C-alpha cells in the first residue's frame, strides 16, 4: 500500500503589532499628530501635574513641530527633550536643538522647558555621565515619544552598525529594559558622533508614535515588521515596545 505524501504547511510569521494612521499628505499628518500628542500631554498633566516628551529631529517633523507649537495646554509644565542629538553646537544647521528652538519653541510652546543632550565639550563621551544623570533625574519617565526612521532602518541614533566593534553597545542601545537611558554613538553612516536615548528610555513613554513619510520608508518598515531575521534597529523598536506603537504616515 502506497503511503500518502504528507502535505507540509508553511506557517508565515505574524508581523509585529503596529497601529497605522495613513494620510494623504504631510500637512494632514502634522495636524493630526499634533492634536493627538497635545491630548496625550494634557492627560499626563491631569494625572501627575507635569509632562515629558521626547522628539526626533531631521526634516520630516518640521510641520508637526509647527502645528504642535500652537496647541493649547499648560506648556510651562512640559519638559521637551530630543530623542537624539548630533554632536555639533546648538547654532549649527544640523543641530536638533536648533531645529526644536526654531520650529517648536514658539507660539504657545515657547513656555516649555528644554532638556538638551548636547554640552559644549569635544566629544559626547566626555559629557555622557552628566547628561545621563540629568535625563534620568529630570526627563524620565517620558509620557510621549515620537520616533522617526531613516532609509537604512535606523531610529533615534541607533544605526544598523551599532556595536559592530563592541556588541555590548548594541545591547545597551536596543535592550528594551536596560539601565542606561542615554548613550554616545559613532556610526560610519554619519559624519558626527551623537548622543541618543536608548530604547529602554524611549519605552518609558506610554504613548509611542512613529512618524515617517514616503513609500520607500513605509516599504522598509513593513519588511522589518514581517521579517523575524531582520537586525535593523527599527525591528528592535517594534519588537521591544511594551505596547504597539502607532504609525503616522503620508506619501
Automatic annotation (TrEMBL):
Entry keywords, A to Z: Hydrolase
Pathway: Carbohydrate degradation; pentose phosphate pathway; D-ribulose 5-phosphate from D-glucose 6-phosphate (oxidative stage): step 2/3
Name the UniProt record assigns to this protein: 6-phosphogluconolactonase
Entry's family note: Belongs to the glucosamine/galactosamine-6-phosphate isomerase family. 6-phosphogluconolactonase subfamily.
One of the record's GO molecular function terms: 6-phosphogluconolactonase activity
Enzyme class label: hydrolase
InterPro entries with a match to the protein in the record: 6-phosphogluconolactonase_DevB, 6PGL, Glc/Gal-6P_isomerase, NagB/RpiA_transferase-like
Entry superkingdom: Bacteria
Gene Ontology BP annotations: carbohydrate metabolic process; pentose-phosphate shunt
Record-annotated Glucosamine/galactosamine-6-phosphate isomerase domain positions: 25-238
A Pfam short name: Glucosamine_iso
The encoding gene: pgl
Catalytic activity: 6-phospho-D-glucono-1,5-lactone + H2O = 6-phospho-D-gluconate + H(+)
Keyword Cytoplasm attached: no
Enzyme Commission number(s) of this protein: 3.1.1.31
